[in-house]
Task: inverse folding
């Protein structure tokens, strides 16, 4: 890292051809000059002045947040929906994690820059973390793309900023301490985007955060206790691999590894449906794996074909995702010491689609995978997608990836004001790099400008939105008290 929140540099791939024009005679794209792209970004300030990003003024026409969550529940596994509500009701920040649809509706009513990039769609601080690159380096990046879709770049920034305000409140930070992290995240985004705007396309594409290098750079910025915790978390992440998952999630049954039942969070298919249906379901999932393999590059498909599917279970994951169908699939390679776990996770329509436009992909699994490839520096080698017909006769889209591969995330509750500010810097830089790969980084950088107007406005928005989130959390509590919703806590 440098003295400023920007860490390296990044560049452009221009989703939806913003920053390119077409020649009528040949229909070949002609790139706009940097000056033309910068002028486009500056012109966007007239439609959405930077200080207007502070605005959040909900009216009586604002959608009922509980109704939005109930609407999502219709397409989910009914017996798991109470677990989702229970996890969201553990704290206002947990509610925020599960309320991406609520915020999407709110963001649609705020000033819009018109500068689009591939959005994460759920860019809160807990959706960033570490994982292994194919070269077995530990990297820091965004790690959840269920809601990814092209949209106004500032929507991701505002969701990230508000998450730091809420996390700071949950940790009991003072007002100024919370504001410091929020401003750090937005300022890091702006400074990084300005650096990326001057870089080449390939420099942006190759840019990433290597955790070993990063730890050495942030060491002078952290006190001993937070530094020790960071080192311990990285060491733990390296242990969260396929063998750790295998040892934790399986046991031998007649000499064959089987996924351990832990209902309702982990339920083998043999317990979900009658024996004859379980066989049919396993065959369908096996067919899904074979078909999904066609979405992989030939070398990854060849690797996948060297594994045999041994067992399948339904697994509850996350907060906002609870109730969507998620399966863990146990495979064995050359022997019992060569297992892998893949996770097949249902991909429904992005919460942004109603407000930012429909996906360009017919398969939502492909939408997730394509967005992840655009935004992440390196993606899981088994990342792919497929549509399958379930036992209920309904076609559903899935994306597939490894269950664990050196994955790790911060423990928000243990963060100090200082460590949260450093973490905010990393998240802001990472989000800027992701947007710079897919959007017009030159136009966005010009729009944001050299002054701190944007981050100050975003900080004001974050405070106002955190207050609204607290009210929405109370509304969900009231829905439980009135019997409107059924809640299962502690799971």
Result:
């Amino acid at each position: 890292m440098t003295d400023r929140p920007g860490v390296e540099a990044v560049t452009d791939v221009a989703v939806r051809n913003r920053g390119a024009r077409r020649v009528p005679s040949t229909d070949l794209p002609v790139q706009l000059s940097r000056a033309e792209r910068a002028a486009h970004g500056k012109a966007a300030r007239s439609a959405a002045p930077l200080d207007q990003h502070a605005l959040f003024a909900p009216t009586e026409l604002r959608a009922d947040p509980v109704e939005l969550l109930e609407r999502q529940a219709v397409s989910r596994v009914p017996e798991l929906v109470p677990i989702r509500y229970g996890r969201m009701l553990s704290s206002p920040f947990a509610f925020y994690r599960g309320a991406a649809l609520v915020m999407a509706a709110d963001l649609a009513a705020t000033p819009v820059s018109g500068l689009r990039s591939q959005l994460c769609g759920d860019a809160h601080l807990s959706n960033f973390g570490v994982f292994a690159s194919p070269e077995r380096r530990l990297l820091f990046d965004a790690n959840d793309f269920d809601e990814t879709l092209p949209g106004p770049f500032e929507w991701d920034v505002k969701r990230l900023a508000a998450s730091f305000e809420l996390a700071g409140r949950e940790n009991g930070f003072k007002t100024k301490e919370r504001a410091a992290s929020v401003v750090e995240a937005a300022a890091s985004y702006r400074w990084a985007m300005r650096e990326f705007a001057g870089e080449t396309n390939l420099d942006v594409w190759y840019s990433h955060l290597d955790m070993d290098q990063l730890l050495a750079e942030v060491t002078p910025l952290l006190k001993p206790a937070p530094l020790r915790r960071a080192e311990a978390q990285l060491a733990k992440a390296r242990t969260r691999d396929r063998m750790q998952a295998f040892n934790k999630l399986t046991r031998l049954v007649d000499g064959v590894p089987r996924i351990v039942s832990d209902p309702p969070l982990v339920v083998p298919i043999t317990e979900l449906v009658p024996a004859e249906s379980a066989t049919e379901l396993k065959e369908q999932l096996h067919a899904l794996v074979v078909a999904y393999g066609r979405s992989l590059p030939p070398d990854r498909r060849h690797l996948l074909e060297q594994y045999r599917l041994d067992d399948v279970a339904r697994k509850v994951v996350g907060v906002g995702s609870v109730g969507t169908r998620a399966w863990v699939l146990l495979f064995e390679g050359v022997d019992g010491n060569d297992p892998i776990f893949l996770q097949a996770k249902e991909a429904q329509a992005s919460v942004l689609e109603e407000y930012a436009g429909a996906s360009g992909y017919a398969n939502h699994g492909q939408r997730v995978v394509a967005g992840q490839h655009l935004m992440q520096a390196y993606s899981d080698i088994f990342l792919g997608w497929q549509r399958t017909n379930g036992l209920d006769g309904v076609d559903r889209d899935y994306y597939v990836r490894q269950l664990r591969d050196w994955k790790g995330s911060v423990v928000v509750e243990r963060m100090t004001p200082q460590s949260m500010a450093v973490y905010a810097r990393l998240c802001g830089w990472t989000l800027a790099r992701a947007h710079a790969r897919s959007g017009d980084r030159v136009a966005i950088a010009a729009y944001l400008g050299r002054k701190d107007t944007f981050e100050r406005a975003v900080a004001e928005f974050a405070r106002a939105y955190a207050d609204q989130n607290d009210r929405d959390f109370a509304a969900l509590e009231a829905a439980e008290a009135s019997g409107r919703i059924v809640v299962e806590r502690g799971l």
Observations:
- The two ends are 39 Å apart (CA to CA).
- The chain has a mean pLDDT of 89.
